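Chapter review. Work through the record for Remorin family protein before attempting the end-of-chapter questions.
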Amino acid sequence: MPFQSFELLVSTNCSFYFYFSVKISQKYKGRRTDEKRNPNMHMGQNKPVQKKSPLYEESTIIFASSQNEKLVEIEKEKRLALIDAWEENEKAKAQTKAYKELCSIESWENNMKTALELDLKKMEENLQVEKTEFSKKFKKKIPEIEKIAEAKREKIEKQKEQESIKVEKISEKLIATPNAYPPNTKTCGCF
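Structure tokens for Remorin family protein:
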């Protein structure tokens, strides 16, 4: 049986190439399978054995049994080689399938991370917009607050001036009337 090889080239979307070759049989390389032995020749003899002799029956039985054993052995080796080739092929398929699934998981993970990063950037942009809006509102409120505070200060200053004027008037009255100190205090008539 000449050298036979089984080649499998698997290509996935993840640029993965896997190549292997299985030798089925090299034991029979170069041997011609069309050679046939003459069953009329006894082993080790060059002259034909007569069909009626007991050697003829013995040689055909020996030849048939040895040929059957060789065929059985060849078939067994062939079967084992095919099983090995099938096993390697199935392992390669499993590896390829696992690699594809790993690639798809990795791409899914990368897509999810990218989506989260985009969401984070959008949130940051929204926060930045809200921050600028709030800062504008606060900047608008600051002059209003300052205006209100100034009005309250003026009111207090006016009250302070009115109190000081009132105190000055009372002090002038007290100066004008010598017995009137302390103001609004009642004294006992005996003292």
